[in-house]
């Protein structure tokens, strides 16, 4: 294997998958589950739900079925709207409240949260620079031996994108009430369904088998429960990190929405459908957060 890919995201993802599998095996011990702080336990379950939603998105490829581009864009827009409202009502507002609760003035609290949002965005941008997914599915200029490597590079890029989503789930369960955290997880999970589908479809179109494409699409979401547990543990370790954690998760989510979800939903020209679905998703989550949360 070439030296230039000796530390590929695929290998890092493999290590994460092994760690995740070991954690899931260890979870079979009732004593370990009982020893988990409730926020960490809920974060793990929420992360697993998000990973399961990614797996559900690969089913059309596995079953040789497909959705119309308009349906796909509507689902992506709906998930983006839900994530946007969840970012506002489940992360930003609780972050400001937590900062005020720590004794900061309204201005200081708002500036702190603003800084946390910028920090969260910069972290995701840095993670994305670790891997370039452009052209990794181009089979025209490479031999069969490198096909698997490029597939893992693509999955690694998507997995890196999923890390902040998983951490947002964990921070949510550690920092806000359970109903708001559940709403946030729901929004991320809905967005993960079309995300899993696009990963599997991209691999399938590039010539990979149905089972292989669906399997790698599913694996791209496995990092979410790992990220969720890490996010919850960080907040559990220090309550002072709560405003920063919530704000950082909000910044990561906003970047994902603006940089990935919205452009992808409108890439095929279904602007009206994607925008309408985004507004509907925002309204649904706003009602869940403010009237029923």
TrEMBL record:
UniProt topology in membrane: Multi-pass membrane protein
Tagged with keyword Zinc: yes
Superkingdom as given in the UniProt entry: Bacteria
Entry's Gene Ontology cellular component terms: plasma membrane
Keyword terms, alphabetized: Cell membrane, Membrane, Transmembrane, Transmembrane helix, Zinc
Any one Gene Ontology molecular-function term assigned to this protein's record: zinc ion transmembrane transporter activity
Subcellular location: Cell membrane
Transmembrane segments: 44-63, 75-96, 108-127, 211-235, 241-258, 270-288
Keyword Transmembrane attributed: yes
A Pfam family of this chain: Zip
Family named by the database record: Belongs to the ZIP transporter (TC 2.A.5) family.
Protein name (Swiss-Prot/TrEMBL): Zinc transporter ZupT
Gene: zupT_1
């Amino acid at each position: 294997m070439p030296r230039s890919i000796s530390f590929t995201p695929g290998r890092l993802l493999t290590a994460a998958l092994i760690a995740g599998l070991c954690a899931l095996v260890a979870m079979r011990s009732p004593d370990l589950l009982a020893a988990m702080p409730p926020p960490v336990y809920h974060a793990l379950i929420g992360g697993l739900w998000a990973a399961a939603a990614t797996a559900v998105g690969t089913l059309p490829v596995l079953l040789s079925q497909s959705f119309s581009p308009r349906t796909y864009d509507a689902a992506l827009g709906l998930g983006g709207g839900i994530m946007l409202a969840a970012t506002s009502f489940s992360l930003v507002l609780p972050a400001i409240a937590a900062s005020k609760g720590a004794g900061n003035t309204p201005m200081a609290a708002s500036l702190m949260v603003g800084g946390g949002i910028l920090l969260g965005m910069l972290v995701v941008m840095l993670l994305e620079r670790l891997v370039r997914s452009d052209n990794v599915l181009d089979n025209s200029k490479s031999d069969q031996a490198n096909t698997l490597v490029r597939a893992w590079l693509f999955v690694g890029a998507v997995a890196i994108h999923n890390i902040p989503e998983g951490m947002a789930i964990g921070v949510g369960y550690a920092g806000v009430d359970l109903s708001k955290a559940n709403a946030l997880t729901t929004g991320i999970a809905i967005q993960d369904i079309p995300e899993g589908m696009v990963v599997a479809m991209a691999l399938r179109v590039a010539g990979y088998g149905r089972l292989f494409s669906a399997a790698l699409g599913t694996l791209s979401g496995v990092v979410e429960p790992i990220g969720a547990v890490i996010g919850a543990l960080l907040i559990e370790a220090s309550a002072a990190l709560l405003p920063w954690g919530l704000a950082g998760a909000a910044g990561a989510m906003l970047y994902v929405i603006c940089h990935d979800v919205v452009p992808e939903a409108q890439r095929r020209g279904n602007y009206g459908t994607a925008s309408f679905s985004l507004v509907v998703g925002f309204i649904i989550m706003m009602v869940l957060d403010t009237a029923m949360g």
